Hints:
The structure holds two protein chains of two kinds. Chain A is an alpha+beta fold. Helix content of chain A is 26%, strand content 17%. In chain A, 39% of the residues are buried. Chain B contains three helices and 13 strands, in the order αββββαβββββββαββ. Chain B is globular, with a radius of gyration of 20 Å. Chains A and B meet through strand 7, helix 2, helix 3, helix 4 and strand 8 of A and helix 1, strand 3, strand 4, strand 5 and strand 8 of B.
Amino acid sequence: MKNLNILSLLLLSGLFLMVSCNDDDDDDDDMTPEPEQPTAAAGNDATVDLEKTVTLNGAASVGTGLVYAWVLTAPDGSAAALTGGDTASPTFVASQEGTYVADLMVTNADGNSATDMVSVVVENPTYALEDQMGRPAINTVFNFFGDADTKNGYNSTLPADGSANATAFEGILDALQGYIGLDSDTYANVLGLDNTTTATVLSTDVLNCNKSAATTYGPSDLSNITVFENVLNGRGLSNDVVDVTLILTFAGDDLANLSDLQSGLIGDGVAANDVSFSTDFPYLADPH
Amino acid sequence: MKKKLLIGIAVIATVMTVVWAADHIDAPAVGSLADGSSDTDITDFYAFESPTSSDNYVFVCNVQGLTAPSATGGISFNEDVMYEFNIDTDADNVEDLVIQTIFRDGKVLSFGPVAPSAAGTSSKIENAGTRTEAEITAYQASASVGESNGIKLFAGPRDDPFFMDFFKFVDIVNGAGNSLGIEVPEPSDGTAYATSFDTPGADTFAGTNVMSVVVEVPKDMIGGSSVTSFNAWAESKRR
């Protein structure tokens, strides 16, 4: 409908121009007012980040009863979609890296037109790593005694490089077990792993996820433990990851024969979140 | 050998500061007790089979931990920060797929799962493939969920799902540090470090909020049906 109107306007203006030309032939008749010449102003060139919504601004265009017609060309040369392309301030999503060119034609009530253009440069910026996290509380627990550089450095360590931390992590396990009188040299946890192996697993800081087994961070069946299947398989919201970590650290491999000291250290006494999770996406509870 | 390790720990620990958990305020560059948790401070990462469909998997990245309810309405997401779920489908702990989330003009956008043009510590926006968007959910508004191609997307303030008696943990581990000659804070009760947790413990994170990004994707988008297990982690990245 809009296009039809514009088409009609263009046809009318063509007729008007022909009439004007005829008028120009008549030297003695200056009674017709001078036709207004509009001015198009497509706004200032801009630079934005990829996926930004850009609002063009043709409001500085001058003329009576202006009709706006924008055409947007994407960096790849294709015509790009504009919202409100017949208004003074249309918008588009800058979904391609490169330079968009917007051509504006304004047409006034007399049917005279003017054009302008504006360029929008779209950048795909580089994002640099600041914090990496796989398993819960690794940096907090295993760099507990570390200095600022150690903690900061850990957050920008990629999982593939994590094994460099295994020796230090083993030192923490040894120290915590030695503190309560356990022999760390012979210690094995409920998964049957010694401290060297546990530290190696944990220092590669990822969640191991099995698509075909139910998610559980802690052992779901102590009598038949399969690592990365029914233990250390993903992490669910309700999984008590702190107790799992404490059990791996302090309980040894015989939960039936714990010392009093061990018994006091394999659970933090907080077994669930303070509010219930939702059964529907996004699952986390509403904020307090 | 063991003694050398312990001495190494003691030497490293010339400065001991109180830190919070899970990984809330875990390093000075992203957050501290004095400065609080920043928009790149990942507090927790979750990856689990969808409770509503065993065909789907859910990824959660929480940041800006320990936010009081009174402060929650005043914080928002940063357009200069990207949260990226990294997925390794061939067991080398290098990402083969990423799900990127960024924030633009009041919306959260997600791209992927898509093979990134480059793996590692630097990322560019990978928007050539699957794109999902949702309005960022405002504090105390009902959750706004975006959907496309079987993917669901949410971003906004949530209850912090993490639970732990963190202060008791700190007191216990400080006791271990003290026994090794590491300079640590005084016992919390002023006399002796704790050597056991309380029953029940006190949830340090009760009543606090985080800013949360949640993405649910069909399992088939994670390497297809031939991939039965994968490794995943979250990264925060700044422009």
